[in-house]
Design a protein that fits this description.
about 110 residues, about 15% strand, single chain, 4-stranded antiparallel β-sheet, 2 helices, alpha+beta, 4 strands
Amino acid sequence: MYRDPTRPAAPADEGIPDPAKPAPARAARERRKASSVDPQALRDGLTPPQLVTLEALQIFQWELAFVRRPLFQAPVPVLFDRARSRHVVIQEDGTLDEHPSLRLRD
């Protein structure tokens, strides 16, 4: 194997963690990124009754946060109130589910 004589030789244990040294502390940071999703892209694919309900809720300053798109099922739009303290789901027929079984991460 060719070694460049102008570069110093690498130590044999390079890249292998030393068990005597403490592991580097990982910063506790949010890995999810705030996406700049186009609001129209979120609305694409919603059923007409969902769109009517969405527009009515937006008048009262509810915000479309995201849309879950399960395979072979209708999309599930999730909205938050302006204080982001409550969330609702709009069902396929346009009705509101104020107590969805949807679990949200912090």
